[in-house]
Design goal:
Length: 300
């Protein structure tokens, strides 16, 4: 039984990962402040990662899944507090690539500020550098938009709400902008492969091989609720995130490295169905935004 430490464990990706590995028989410890309900079957290490002291010095982990580091200080404070460990996996972001870079983005592309993601992206770059300076053989995963059960960000849930209310859907432009997704279960499957097999590639873009247009994505979300959307195309110069779930930014990751180890990923329709099923009983866990109100006041 491999012993795994997961940072977080109470929200979306880290929560899903804690359940994923616990259900498969791993000895899972989660590091968080204990302010939320914990996933069944895990060991809680109740502490702020910035105040670890000697709490973890006597413990040994086969793998550390660092899902909640956002900057270099997060990385350094965790490493300072750890005892011995084997594989270190850090969930970074595709936000490390500047929007002006050549697409599809490859792992050896320049890393720089992206105007859409700003400090979030530059802090992830700094976190990567801090990690590799101290753990040169660490694994770094750079996902596009993550989705799946437990997603507390108002993305697919917003579309589900529109479908439930039989609302027309206000679509950016002609709806041809494409997005790239990655289901949280696929992310966990890849992390398990890394923990068990230690592949030779240590920095990987991760995601579905194919992108999907926002019109197709919205249509698939409506179909999960048994509905068909009626679209209204928004051509006015209005900040897109005020009425839609994503920035007006189309980008694409080259995921060839990942596909060597995870050749098949969940198709978007099946993935969205898992989201809709979870949302039916967990609506209160999603951080909603007043996009419908904006639409009704400014676009209708």
């Amino acid at each position: 039984m491999k012993k795994i430490l997961i940072t977080g464990g109470t929200t979306f990706v880290s929560k899903y990962a804690a359940g994923y590995f616990a259900e498969r028989g791993y000895d899972v410890s989660v590091l968080n402040r204990g302010t939320k309900t914990q996933v069944p079957g895990v060991n809680l290490i109740k502490c702020d990662r910035h105040e670890l002291g000697d709490l973890l010095k006597s413990q040994s982990f086969d793998a550390v899944l660092d899902i909640t580091s956002y900057n270099a200080n997060d990385i350094s404070d965790l490493l300072d507090g750890l005892g011995s460990f084997g594989t270190y996996i850090f969930i970074s972001s595709s936000a490390v690539y500047p929007e002006t870079g050549t697409q599809p983005f490859k792992e050896d592309n320049e890393l720089a500020e992206n105007k859409f993601w700003g400090r979030y992206g530059t802090d992830k770059i700094a976190a990567e550098k801090a990690l590799l300076a101290r753990v040169p053989d660490a694994y770094i995963l750079r996902p596009p938009y993550l989705y799946g059960p437990m997603n507390n960000v108002y993305r697919e849930a917003f579309v589900f709400d529109c479908a439930r209310k039989d609302r027309k859907f206000y679509l950016p432009g002609d709806g041809s902008m494409k997005l790239q997704f990655f289901h949280v279960d696929d992310l966990c499957r890849l992390m398990e492969i890394i923990v068990c097999d230690k592949p030779e590639d240590h920095i990987m873009n991760v995601g579905n091989a194919d992108a999907i247009s926002v019109k197709e994505w919205v249509t698939d979300c409506y179909e999960c609720i048994g509905k068909k959307p009626e679209f209204v195309n928004v051509t006015a110069d209005i900040e897109q995130r005020l009425y839609f779930s994503f920035y007006n930014y189309e980008y694409y990751l080259d995921v060839g490295r990942m596909l060597k180890y995870l050749p098949e990923t969940m198709d978007i329709r099946s993935g969205l169905s898992t989201c809709a099923l979870w949302y039916d009983g967990n609506e209160s866990e999603v951080r909603k935004k007043p996009m419908m109100e904006f639409i009704d006041k400014n676009l209708v």
